[in-house]
Here is the input.
Amino acid sequence: MTNDSGTSMLTLYTDASPNGFKATIALEELGLPWRLVHVRIDKGEHRAPEFLALNPHGRVPVLSDDETGAVLFESAAILLYLAEMSGRLLPDGLARWEAIKWLQFHAASMGPILGQRVHFEIFADEKIAPAIDRYRRLSEEAFATLDVRLGEHEWLAGNDYSIADIATFGWTHITEICGFSLAHHRHLSRWHSQMAARPAVQRGIILPEPATAP
Here is the structure.
């Protein structure tokens, strides 16, 4: 990674967030040259006109590629782009579709559910018990689904570490920070510890800065 004043083919606009960590981990795993721009959400920088020109929905992360002209938002799209351009983190054959399937499971189910659980259980000014109960139940169902898969395979795609693992870890990392224990899901907990031990993951979760509990 280069610093904010450097130049590189890839530029990542992000903040310390579960979706942002997916991109920083992938870039660190791949060892590609890239430039980091810290978009500070607490200061409203995600609503600045220059950022909205990159993502009109006003969310991080965003990846731009000066060489191809691609500008991508949505973390799953960014992960797929990085895997395709590098030829890594997306296995061949049937395992490719396993990786994509679990990436989509994360994007459509796990990520949104955990996002709502974090909101209602931690950040919401009014604690609405039915909403908290609903998203606790749904998140536990998602964890149980992952636990079954990881009881049968080392990684979500099977034998191959992939972008599906990176996407999923972005939120299990935040889950742990928020105090939502994974310990009772034995296989998921094993996988999470295995992910957390990877040097590139350890670097990725402190960029642009570590997430902290509210």
In short: Residues 10-89 form a domain with the Glutaredoxin fold (CATH 3.40.30.10).
